[in-house]
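Structure (tokenized):
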């Protein structure tokens, strides 16, 4: 597999018929990504299955992370934002104090 990022090329829709087989060969080998333009404006892309699968995985991971954020947001929906900020600030200070105490403990190596 080619570890370097594929080159991105722009091609007009009108030129696609003549170039398609060659472009697909390069795209399928992860050597090229193609932006298809109509009148100079990007309208589509041709990417390898590897790229598509990687982007799909990144989308799934991103959605999972946002689901966690949404659950946290829902759990604190009724809490006053100022109170929530005070509680978070207090909790962070407590954790930082505990970490500092651990770092200063005899025999603790960092």
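Design, position by position:
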């Amino acid at each position: 597999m080619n570890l370097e990022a594929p080159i991105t090329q722009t091609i007009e829709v009108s030129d696609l018929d003549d170039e398609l087989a060659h472009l697909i060969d390069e795209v399928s080998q992860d050597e090229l990504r193609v932006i298809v333009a109509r009148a100079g404006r990007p309208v589509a892309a041709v990417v390898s299955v590897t790229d598509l699968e990687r982007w799909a995985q990144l989308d799934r991971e991103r959605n999972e992370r946002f689901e966690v954020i949404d659950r946290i947001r829902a759990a604190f929906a009724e809490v006053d934002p100022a109170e929530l900020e005070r509680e978070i600030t207090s909790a962070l200070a407590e954790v930082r104090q505990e970490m500092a105490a651990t770092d200063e403990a005899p025999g603790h190596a960092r």
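Reviewer-requested clarification: Strands lie at 7-12, 32-38, 41-46. The domain at 1-47 is CATH 3.40.1620 (YefM-like fold).
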